[in-house]
Design goal:
about 325 residues, alpha+beta, 8 helices, binds alpha-D-galactopyranose
Length: about 325
């Protein structure tokens, strides 16, 4: 049996998912693949990239000390997915690990499909979000898992994280998206958890950020919390405006919104780095580039640029692919 799950790049809408906001990621043509023979009660998986073999007994509770450490994800997935059988096989990936392209969600979804392929995409995404949180201890949102579970080829996945409603938005073929790797990072030990808390503080003061307006920020006393809220409220609007601009072929406006998103993530939300800011500036000054921004959780990872096809910039040209699935 063989399963595979793509990575994703987020085109716009970062740090909005965990307050029920809007996000617009796209599953990309890099995949994690699980291949092997079905077994009764055990999961045995080797990786092409890391030494050691992961052994998980079906029915075992989550083991956070699993070695090699990527086995934590397998253990977490197995503990939430109600496996129908085990597997003895290998994991391979073309998704760069720790680069902000959701390598962990791709691993979770590929393993989940190998153990139980009867769960609906949205339910599976919610279970995989739970698995991610168990494996990392970081209170991440639903964006990555839901995009990878439900993506449609040729489309970006506009997600309303309040309702989990999905709109598949066609990605035009006369623009190109290029991902530039900046630095390895992990959200474990980063300020991600602080940002989740600061957004909760903002919601304590002014109610759900999804419904809030920029003028409400005036009643937030703590200036840091007010800036976090400013990012989220304005980013939700940028997601709407970006998807409209993209669909209307207005790439200049779409690119401008990407730059504004980056500026807000850098100044208001403080999840960018000096290196990412410099690369975004460099890309935006390059002829043929409509816009660029950091993508994903931040603190390193990748930058994504939208440009005219064939623009000479270094990076991985990515294209929109379909959801995780079982192949045979
Ligand atoms: C990580 C998380 C997502 C989301 C992004 C930031 O990728 O896993 O849930 O919060 O960061 O947009």
């Amino acid at each position: 049996m063989k399963t595979r799950a793509p990575g994703r790049v987020n085109l716009i809408g970062d740090h909005t998912d965990y307050t029920g906001g809007l996000v617009f990621p796209m599953a990309i043509n890099r995949w994690t693949t699980v291949e092997g023979a079905l077994t009764d009660k055990t999961i045995t998986l080797a990786s092409d990239d890391v030494d050691g073999v992961v052994h998980v007994a079906i029915g075992a509770p989550f083991d956070g000390d699993m070695q090699p450490s990527w086995g934590r994800y397998v253990s977490a997935v197995s503990s939430v997915v109600n496996p129908l059988h085990g597997i003895n096989g290998t994991v391979t990936t073309t998704v760069p690990v720790g680069a902000g392209l959701s390598s962990s969600a791709a691993l979770e979804l590929a393993v989940a499909y190998a153990l139980n392929d009867t769960i609906s995409p949205t339910s599976l995404a919610l279970l995989m979000q739970q698995a991610e949180r168990m494996a990392t201890g970081v209170p991440t949102g639903i964006m990555d898992q839901l995009c990878i579970a439900s993506a449609r080829e040729g489309h970006g996945t506009l997600i309303d994280c309040a309702t989990l409603g999905i709109t598949h938005v066609e990605i035009p073929t006369d623009v190109e998206f290029v991902v530039r790797f900046i630095a390895h990072r992990t959200l474990e030990g980063s300020e991600y958890t602080d940002r989740v808390r600061e957004c909760a503080d903002a919601e304590d003061a002014i109610g759900p950020l999804r419904q809030a307006e920029l003028k409400n920020i005036l009643s937030i006393e703590n200036p840091t919390v007010a800036r976090r809220a400013r990012h989220v409220i304005s980013e939700n609007q940028r997601v709407r405006d970006f998807t409209n601009a993209l669909s209307n072929g207005d790439y200049v406006t779409a690119g401008h919104l990407m730059r504004e998103s980056h500026a807000s993530l850098s100044h208001n939300f403080e999840v960018s780095t000096a290196q990412m800011d410099a690369v975004v500036n460099e890309l935006c000054a390059t002829p043929g580039v409509f816009g660029a921004r950091m993508t994903g959780g931040g603190f390193g990872g990748c930058v994504v640029a939208m440009c005219e096809p064939g623009t000479a910039i270094d990076g991985w040209r990515v294209s929109p692919v379909g959801a995780a699935c079982r192949l045979d």
